[in-house]
Amino acid sequence: MRIGILTGGGDCPALNAVIRAAVKTSVGFGWEVVGIEEGFDGLVHCKTRPLTKASVSGILHLGGTILGTTSAANPFGYPTLDDRGQTVERDLSHKVVSNFRKLGLDALIVIGGDGTLAIAERFYEKGIPLVAVPKTIDNDIGGTVSSFGFDTAVNTARDALDKLHTTAESHRRVIVVEVMGRHAGWIAVHSGVAGGADIILIPEIPYDPAKVAAIIIMRERLGKHFSIVVVAEGAFAQGAEPTYAEPKRPGRVGGRVASTITELTGKETRVVVLGHLQRGGPPTTFDRVLGTRFGAAAARLIHNGAFGRMVSLLPSEVKSIPIRDAIGQQKRVPIDSDVIESAREIGISFGN
Ligand code: F6P
Fold first, then answer.
1. Does the CB atom of residue 178 touch ligand 1 within 6 A?
2. What is the pLDDT of residues 287-322, one digit of tens each?
3. String of b and e for 287-311 (b: at least 16 CB within 10 Å)?
4. Taking the CB of the first residue and of the last residue of the chain, which one, N or C, has fewer CB atoms within 10 A?
């Protein structure tokens, strides 16, 4: 078997952990692995490089993706120049299918967000045997409780909130922190809850500016002369339209919220836009483990011929159970769990 791996869309911490695990597991199955550079663009132009155990060694802790990525190369609507030098979109999907064959590939692992996965699904329908790994710091891909990169992004935002608290308090200011999340407020909710935000604004709950102002004024009366407001970039006021649109302009939403607060409360405000900081840096422990599990699981899907499928994490929600059901049964690491299997597949020994 000869399989290809590509990363598409925005980068995300732990992409390299996925690549590393997928390569090591595939090599363990006796397969050859080809890294496709810059997402589907690499299949349009045959930009590839061999991936071996040696070439993925030492990348686990690195942010970004060693394969490079792009969000601007959809082969079904590929931007090209026409005779008059105008940019027009052409369907180059046939090139991808023929290059897939030309490269001698038997299967493909596509690691990407919703845009990349939608492209992958179309290629699966066109006959490319592929499996998918969900990637997003925004955590907004359905069918999986979490995707790698989210935990790292949340930690970056939470760390910023910890630091901003003291300066907000010292200067008696309102600090508005804009975090990523165009369609979903996961980063805002998790970082805000962990970082002690006073107000969290997310796209799922259009906000009432008067209520936001009332909370800040009430805190003022209680002797809390500062407030921390976390805003997802897709948040919008009741009755208004979402303002996060093309062209992307990070900071617009945070700026709007801050000026509304100043207008309605008279408080001095500052805006901090975390932007792409949230996409970088070494992945957290959780993301390294999840990325490793996803990468190894993707190779296993191919091994089992389960094409057209996406790996996903589906633990249960926080619920309650009778105490008696919990006691007297120590929870040990299930030795047949996927985390143990993946660890073994990438060459970790448990000494047995
Ligand atoms: O990865 C998703 C995301 O982080 C969004 O929250 C953000 O709006 C977008 O990517 C920005 O991506 P880029 O600047 O790379 O186009």
1. no
2. 999 999 999 999 999 999 999 999 999 876 666 667
3. bbbbbbbbbbbbbbbbeeeebeebb
4. C
pTM for the predicted model, two decimal places = 0.92
Q: Say if ligand 1 is within 6 A of residue 23 CB.
A: no
User: How far away, in angstroms, is 294 Cα from ligand 1 center?
Assistant: 22
Residue 285 burial (10 A CB sphere; 0-12, 13-18, 19+): exposed
Cα of 57 vs centre of ligand 1, distance in Å, is 28
Segment 161-188 shows an average pLDDT of 95
- The lowest-confidence range among 27-31, 197-201, 281-285 is 197-201
The rounded Å distance from CA 250 to ligand 1 centre is: 9
Q: State yes or no: is 208 an active-site residue.
A: no
**Does the beta carbon of 137 sit less than 6 angstroms from any atom of ligand 1?**
yes
Tokens of 262: 């100043």
For a mutational test of ligand 1's pocket, the pick from 150, 182, 191, i.e. the residue with the most ligand atoms closer than 8 A to its C-beta, is 182
Residues 272-281 have a mean pLDDT of: 96
Q: What is the pLDDT of residue 53?
A: 97
> Two tokens at 305?
């011929």
H/E stretch holding 120? helix 114-125
Instruction: Count other Cβ atoms within 10 Å, centred on residue 64.
Output: 17
Find the catalytic residue in 11, 41, 138, 198.
138
Cβ(48) – ligand 1 distance below 6 Å: no
| Nearest residue by C-alpha to atom 4 in ligand 1 | 180
What confidence tens digit (pLDDT) does each residue in 115-172 have?
999 999 999 999 999 999 999 999 999 889 889 999 999 999 999 999 999 999 999 9
For ligand 1, is residue 312 a contact (CB within 6 Å)?
Answer: no
